[in-house]
């Protein structure tokens, strides 16, 4: 049965059943595959015939995961990677060469910042940062050698938003490749490709898995662009393991119901903290006080599960709050079923200078809250007692 509904697609898309007629897809733990004859081997390696050749290239489990992600995000094709950062590195590596220039949102994950400043800069790729809250400045940064526009929206951890339709028009006008890190929103809440992006990237480690178990990433786009990605990835080898792909594909079956609860809980936490005297600032896309609230409402289904706050008292105030939490986990991860608190300035974004952190809104008192699936009364009670 064909369906256009997100939940049904996520649950019912499955690799072809084997002769054992299993109801749930098995794990294909094999590194290689057998060919019927020499001609089939030749045809598969020549891309004249579809099929599995080697699990660094494709595997039934990774193929199922990719097919689901493509259907859910409206992509023609995709490639699954071992981690979210492998997805970003592979995308940069596939399309950027010596002499190219990239425009990136200033507020990016710490490791993405390291790729731009310390890795690709050694290979002759230059970059400029632009502010998500100042879209009027983006066009002026485009140079004759600009190849790519890269953006996180919502950003990590500042929860800044930019109008993807605006960026899509800008990329089209200047013949740029628009790449969007869609990790915080997931395909359930936001679909960048429908808004003008060319490639959408996910750290599947986060909400796609959603239970803190496995690492993974995925790159989604047109067949033409993903062919370029595959050509690079086949030789650089960032492939997702079959076991992790199996976990991630199963996790997609519950993504919609999990995100509904994440978003419901996060909005209630944001509304509560916005009124708390010990909280200096609350950033959440679906709070009317968010600077890009109208844009978020236009391009996102709900506000997501991340709330970023600034606690009064700087690093001491943030540390006291985090140490006072009893149920929340203190971890650098996010998007788990369990609520997590992170201090970005000393963990995920510690490699940025203090000036760089301040520019993207990461203060010493900033705390990123990944709101989990626990009962909302218990989440609020833990926050309340930690702020005493």
UniProtKB/TrEMBL annotation:
<keyword id="KW-0808">Transferase</keyword>
<dbReference type="InterPro" id="IPR015424">
    <property type="entry name" value="PyrdxlP-dep_Trfase"/>
</dbReference>
<comment type="function">
    <text>Catalyzes the formation of L-homocysteine from O-succinyl-L-homoserine (OSHS) and hydrogen sulfide.</text>
</comment>
<comment type="subunit">
    <text>Homotetramer.</text>
</comment>
<comment type="similarity">
    <text>Belongs to the trans-sulfuration enzymes family. MetZ subfamily.</text>
</comment>
<comment type="pathway">
    <text>Amino-acid biosynthesis; L-methionine biosynthesis via de novo pathway; L-homocysteine from O-succinyl-L-homoserine: step 1/1.</text>
</comment>
<keyword id="KW-0663">Pyridoxal phosphate</keyword>
<dbReference type="Pfam" id="PF01053">
    <property type="entry name" value="Cys_Met_Meta_PP"/>
</dbReference>
<keyword id="KW-0028">Amino-acid biosynthesis</keyword>
<protein>
    <recommendedName>
        <fullName>O-succinylhomoserine sulfhydrylase</fullName>
        <ecNumber>2.5.1.-</ecNumber>
    </recommendedName>
</protein>
<keyword id="KW-0486">Methionine biosynthesis</keyword>
<dbReference type="InterPro" id="IPR000277">
    <property type="entry name" value="Cys/Met-Metab_PyrdxlP-dep_enz"/>
</dbReference>
<dbReference type="InterPro" id="IPR006234">
    <property type="entry name" value="O-succ-hSer_sulfhydrylase"/>
</dbReference>
<dbReference type="InterPro" id="IPR015421">
    <property type="entry name" value="PyrdxlP-dep_Trfase_major"/>
</dbReference>
<dbReference type="InterPro" id="IPR015422">
    <property type="entry name" value="PyrdxlP-dep_Trfase_small"/>
</dbReference>
<dbReference type="GO" id="GO:0008483">
    <property type="term" value="F:transaminase activity"/>
</dbReference>
<keyword id="KW-0032">Aminotransferase</keyword>
<feature type="modified residue" description="N6-(pyridoxal phosphate)lysine">
    <location>
        <position position="206"/>
    </location>
</feature>
